[in-house]
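Section 3.1 - Work completed
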Amino acid sequence: MEIEDLGHLPNDESVIFGHKVCQTRNAKWLCISDIYQKFHRPNFYDIGGTYIEDIADYWFMYKTEQISNIFLLHIFVYDRQENKFGLAISRNAENMKIDNKNAAVYLTQSLVEHRFKRSKEISQNYVITFSFSSYDIDLVKDRSLYIFISFDSLEHKGSCQGFIDQVKINHDFKALLFDPIGSDFTIESADGVKFQVHRVILAGYSDVFKAMLKEETAESQNSYVKLVDVGNEDLQCILECIYTGTISNLENCNCINMLMLADRYNLKGLRELSQYALSERMSVENALEILIVADSYNSETLKTAALKFIKKNTMCIQTSTFKEINNPELLRHLCEYIIPS
């Protein structure tokens, strides 16, 4: 289960924090303030609760624990009613999303679902443990930690998940990519390779392509466009992602180019794939380049991963790429991050 990049930012009604009234049906975020200090004072702490109208429903708590250089955050939920329930919550603390403007860190990468059997009223239920390194802890200093949750009809969702998965399989358009029956548009790469494609698939995947394919545009009227800055191999990767939701030969793609093109054409799935691939390929030689690209294209997930890697491998700043950082704000952020306060 995926969460949109930072599209589901917390609003006051959706945040569980202290004794603020949050309706169970609206609950989307657990908010933990001063988490940096709490990690250094291991104990049990309250998060807050949800309500059904004015009746208390669920209450969340957490416990902090430190084992060597690993910091553990254990989440618990108390059910105020005697019933069974389901809860989905952020799967792990990897690829934390930093929001400097709001002094916040979000755990939103993916969700894992938990089901709890009918139990006695006000019973404690263990939910999940998040593991943080010392580098992660630096990221949450002076920021609030937001953990995505959902109570949305998990029982019903589980009963039809197999059907939903089958529908997804049936809507993989890979066959149409390699045998473009009914194609009604042509895209040409910068080096002259033409691809026969389908307007409806392009428009459904990208707002940029959707605008390009409106009736009054020259591209729409000619049923043709040449992407003068996209080579054949990059265009193949883009189209495969649009038609199938993935790239089968991802390890051989130029993922820096893919991230740039995903930003230009508003290709969310390609953006996520590129971020993942670049974070997996990070090395001393390319970490600074990835950091620069992530900053240029507002990829906070990838930027955070790069900062963490560079802090752990400070020899990165000895590479020639360090001299190519021409954004003073990024340079300041990097120096502040890698130099202990």
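Second construct:
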Amino acid sequence: MPHGDQPEATRLWVAPVFDERPTAHEPGATGRSVVPRRTSPDDHAEPARVDDPWLFITETILSPDGGSWVDGLHREHELIWTGAGALTVEADHQLWTVPPGLAIWIPAHTRHHVRAAPGTLTHVTYLAPQRVDPPWAAGIAGITLSRAVHELVLHNKAAVLDDAVRMRLQQVVVDLLVPVESASLDLTMPADPRLRTVAEAIVADPADDRTLGEWADTLNISSRTLSRAFVRETGTTLTRWRILVRMRQALLEISSGRSVAAVALRLGYANPSTFTDLFRQTLGHTPAAYLKSFVTT
């Protein structure tokens, strides 16, 4: 019987390219980078990766040059996490930051975008939906990736195990998956093409401090129109949205070993104390305490 993981399943993305071309099975596609919501299981989903009777397998993707790509529709749930580097995942118009200690749960048949910084090591754990169906499985969620889960998943991937032992290990992993209890890490991305231009520019450069008026001039619309439209599509103001982007970028950089002072300066804050206070106001903890809130044993 084949075991529930594949040691050879390590993919190398030399230069991932974000494919913006519409496809035949996406009616009305405009070619813009908008993430469709979950689709029917019959809509060209890729072949199943997890063989009976196993619960999951894990693949590893190395991105030396970084980049972004559209992941295909998968029949399995996905748990996306990083072993090194910075990673963001967009699905259902939500943008998720993925620092160490956190994984993003993507339900089966949900198209998503993945963005990786150079040198990022991305792990994708595929879980069979007919055998793994926790109460929260239907929605996208941040999942606490404890040290135990991290090590057990990698052990399942690399080790030669007796079938019964492997099945017990996989069941323990599934039982240990817990939705994150910290402040929400999702960020709503606007669908309107004009607002999307602003949002993508800020995500690409969180230190961009152009005012609402300057963005309105760029889009050739009034400040009032931009303000109302942004709140309507994202649920928050442009200023607040930019702060959230900065805090999430800070999580990635601090968790990668950069000092708080260096990260604050890069994100446009001359005073690290101001940055730390803003981080606490936004997410309820200092950066160090926030990371500890979901990096557990």
